Amino acid sequence: MDAIRSPLSQSSSVSLHRSVPEEEEEEGGASKVEVRFVTSGSEEELGAGPSSELTALLLRYRHGYKRAGVLLSVCGVIVFIIAFLLAYAVFSGRNHCSQVEGQGEEDTRGGGGAKTPADGGAGLYLGELRVMMRKLLQDEDIHNTVSRFSRASHPPGSSEGTSLASEILRRFRELQMDHTWAESLYATLQFPDRSQRSSLWLVDSAGVVSEQILLNPSDYCPYSATGSTTGGVVYANYGRPEDFHWLKSAGVSVKGCVVVMRVGGGVSFAEKVWLAEKNGAGGVLIYPDPADLPQDPRRLGLNAHTAVSEHVHLGSGDPFTPGFPSFNHTQFPPIQSSGLPLIPALPISATVAAKLLSQLSGPSCPLSWQGRLPYVRCVIGPEFSSGRKVRMSVHNVMTPVLLNNIFSSLEGRVEPDQYIIVGAQRDSLGPGAVKSGVGTAILLELARTFSVMVKNGFSPRRSLLFVSWDAGDFGNVGATEWLEGYLSMLHLKAVAYFSLDQAIMGDDVLTAFSSPLLVDLLDAAIRQVEHPKHAGQTIYSQAEREGGSWRIKKPLYLNSGAYSFTAFAGVPAMELRFTEERAYPFVNTPLDSASRLQEVLGGRLGVTGRSLGELVGEMVLRLAHDHILPLRITSYAQTVLQFSAQLNKHSAELQSRGLSPQWVFSARGDYSRAADTLQRAIDYSDVHDPTTARFYNTRIMKVEYYFLSQYVSAVETPFRHVIHGRGNHTLSALTEHLALLTSDPGRFDERLFRRQLALFTWTLQGAANALNGDVWSIHNTHTYTH
């Protein structure tokens, strides 16, 4: 398959479009399941008693027909026996059917393994399913797959990338799941220009080049603006909002300058460049500082000449089709994402950064900004002591590339149109052991495990969908374009999404980036899964010993593989990650290999991958097994309550400006009551009734979707979620604006705040109304005035 093809080509992915091999279709497609019925010991005892009594009675009264008096007695006994047997048959039949159909299932909220039949589990219990899953997950398979898929760079559209896609498709087909297929699309990606390299020079006051600084031609920031800029250099630490605020307070302007920033600080490359551009910078250089790396980076193979490459599109998906899919049949309108930067950006090594920063003059930087660059005194700039300036030039080209997302699914028995999705990106600009290899390995291992479980008798209520995404290194393009293609239906189909991207970066701390709706699932899972470094201890029990350091809950972030699912599509999503206390230094570098990852983990790559896979598998198992989806539908009430408390502190000030916070308080109360009412209704309902379960599950699945603001455009503001999204409609924007009443009252914009408050309030009120159900059940006591 060619690396680049015309969007008009219709035969480019024939080999990847066949959903099921012909031999599978001839055999009927789906695998056969051997069903076994389980009878409890008490039933066996009951079954033995009546039949033996019946035999004894028949033998005893075999000759009694000669006596007329005995005849009447025999008739009475026979009638009694028949009545008893009929009653037994009815009771036994009901009890047996209840086991097969899932009646009497354990209370799954407790997360225990009580021996109660799994619904549709063909005689298997939830505890048995857990044991089966643990036995099937293989450490060695995960390790071998990471090594196999991390030997060389495999960017989208390359021969290596296409070969890897074909291999994953083949592996999925070998599992003989119910459906396996590929979906192709064209997206516009950016690559370095092979005919003209990006470059960096030092120029004198007359603009004459005095020195060229050598760069690695493969180091680049996808979606950087192209062109050249010349100016002074300003050091801006991590490039966080507070860093730029400090520069402004110190009287240092970055306007027209090249801003040098460190990798990390909780800020993505895209956010760093966006903030620099917003403050007037002419260009951006980003480097990894030794202070942010492990104490002995040489032992891990990191050197001062290594740069980190990361995309700088402040968004996800194809930036030239924002809000809608880039499938082959799509007509591309002449628009582009507002998240594309207008200034050039380049990744540089610590060596290059030291060369630039060591020549700066100007005020000293704060003590907390000091890194560990050799021979560098921490100075802000922007002037060079020699009077020179920096000229940077970026030469990248936009290219349409054929992408392939690979899918495989197991159909649910009861609610097959509800999907539990597990996915991982497949591509990488480098070897990508952490970036794509680990996620792909765990994805394949989970797919294999659940497919074998189905063959061994597991019958999931809901469908399982395993996906290998393309172009993840360019802003989760493959996943986002798929979401855009099915946006109108996903809130009715997708139960939850679990991202496996960058899942293993260590084995000390477990970090969860998650929608609040999934937190209860995680809390139950960590009580079941063994810690990768402490045999015999669960992650939870180990946490108890270490004061809870096992887990850090964080909100979903823009570059997360799970972010678009929640912020754009309204699907509860989670990304789990095992890390070290110090950041794994090789992500997005040519050094991200399986051997280095093994060294960081002390040889425990397979074991750690298995633990992470078991964590995700445990949550998937619960979602596929339980009658009612175990999502915490009341979680957002607490989030809004915290904001209401902040709002209440400024109540007098707001009212003096003609702004009443009462609307938010009322909407929050309505939502909290609606969520509590729905939860109580579920608690006191017969959830084993299929119609009742379906009714409640449909409402539960929509909760996340209700928080997508209907008052902003999906094209202009794609991340519409008012809690996790980006834009003036979000709770974070409202909170930041509210803080100006204290920090900078002159910048408080009453008109803008009124609009923000209205957008958030009516989204929240709409969510409350939707949770209430029927319109006649909504008791809205607001008085509307014009």
From TrEMBL:
Oxidoreductase listed as a keyword: no
Peptidase M28 domain span: 405-581
One GO cellular component term: external side of plasma membrane
Any one GO MF annotation of this record: transferrin receptor activity
Low complexity bias locations: 1-18
SUPFAM superfamilies: PA domain, Transferrin receptor-like dimerisation domain, Zn-dependent exopeptidases
Membrane topology: Single-pass type II membrane protein
Residue ranges occupied by any PA domain in the UniProt entry: 230-297
Keyword Disulfide bond (UniProt): yes
GO biological process, any: transferrin transport
Transmembrane segments: 68-91
Region feature (Disordered): 1-34
Keywords: Cell membrane, Disulfide bond, Glycoprotein, Membrane, Receptor, Signal-anchor, Transmembrane, Transmembrane helix
Family annotation (InterPro entries): PA_dom_sf, PA_domain, Peptidase_M28, Peptidase_M28B, TFR-like_dimer_dom_sf, TfR1/2_PA
Cellular compartment(s): Cell membrane
Family: Belongs to the peptidase M28 family. M28B subfamily.
Protein name, entry field: Transferrin receptor 2
Organism of provenance: Channa striata (Snakehead murrel)
